[in-house]
Design goal:
InterPro entries: Iontro_rcpt_C, SBP_3_CS, Solute-binding_3/MltF_N. It is found in: Cell envelope. Belongs to the bacterial solute-binding protein 3 family. The strands form four sheets. This protein has a five-stranded mixed β-sheet with strand order 10-9-11-8-12, sandwiched between helices. The protein has a three-stranded parallel β-sheet with strand order 5-1-6. Strands 2-3-4 form a three-stranded antiparallel β-sheet. About 40% of the residues lie in helices and about 25% in strands. The chain has ten helices and 13 strands. It starts with a helix and ends with a helix. With about 250 residues, it is of the alpha/beta class. β2 and β3 form a beta hairpin. The chain has two domains: about 150 residues, Periplasmic binding protein-like II (D-Maltodextrin-Binding Protein, domain 2, 3-Layer(aba) Sandwich), CATH 3.40.190; about 100 residues, D-Maltodextrin-Binding Protein, domain 2. α3 crosses α9.
């Protein structure tokens, strides 16, 4: 406990020292976004190699309102939260990041911009062989490292007898679902919808959602970029642009 408190204190000190501000961003002319581009439809690389997705477009809107360009830095999720922000490597982090009280001790969040849930992804045509809340004892369930899926699995599924397998790469977990090496993989609900559209018949959702959650943009502790991001969110919602982005990237048609 003492070491944990010392680590938290150190992270808070570093975060304060390297806090990115509106003035800093405007001075350098770019807003640096850290993201793990593996969470379609939120952030991913298109066929032409460009970064695309719901989060990317919201970040571009924040940069536009600040009068600067958006610079995208791909970062694996394990290093993205919170290290990339507290170290000053990026000004903002977006990667379907859930707002939690523990994370909020180290970084600052914008207002929630999307409501999601952690769900079980299984091999297509196979959902009946896995269910939640029943039938998890002895089942191998995959999670991505440092995600709320991992935290929820450790708190809820492990005590029920599930075996938790941790992946650094979400795609590796999907491959193990396909091969049958694991029974299910925890992921964000919109990810299942995206997989079903892109890869018909290969993946499905099984059982009830494990936990619901809100996504937020992440900034260094106390940064005034939070207020700027919240103003952009309010503008997007009032203008109807948010709904257009939702329908473009996430809402089922």
């Amino acid at each position: 406990m003492k070491r944990s408190l010392l680590l938290l204190s150190a992270l808070l000190t570093v975060s304060s020292a390297l806090a990115s501000s509106v003035a800093d961003v405007k001075k350098k002319g770019v807003l640096v976004l850290g993201t793990d581009p593996t969470f379609q439809p939120f952030e991913f690389k298109g066929a032409d190699g460009s970064f695309q997705g719901f989060d990317i477009e919201i970040a571009r809107a924040v940069a536009k309102d600040l009068g600067v360009k958006l610079q995208i830095s791909p970062v694996g999720f394990g290093a993205l939260m919170p290290q990339s922000v507290t170290s000053g490597r990026v000004d903002i982090a977006m990667s379907a990041i859930t707002i939690t009280p523990e994370r909020a001790k180290i970084v600052s969040f914008s207002a929630p911009y999307y409501r999601s849930a952690q769900v079980f992804i299984v091999k297509g045509g196979n959902p009946g062989k896995f269910a939640w809340p029943a039938n998890v004892k002895g089942k191998v369930i995959g999670v991505q490292a440092n995600t709320t899926g991992q935290f929820a699995a450790n708190d809820t599924l492990k005590p029920k007898g599930a075996v938790i397998k941790v992946y650094d790469d979400f795609a590796a977990g999907l491959a193990d679902v396909q091969s049958g090496r694991i029974a299910a993989l925890l992921g964000d609900a919109p990810t299942v919808t995206s997989l079903q559209k892109r890869l018909p018949g290969q993946f499905a959702q099984a059982g009830k959602e494990l936990v619901s959650e809100d996504y937020g943009m992440v900034f260094s502790k106390g940064s005034d970029l939070v207020a700027a991001a919240n103003r952009t969110l309010a503008r997007l919602r009032s203008s109807g642009e948010y709904q257009n982005l939702l329908e473009k990237w996430i809402a089922q048609k």
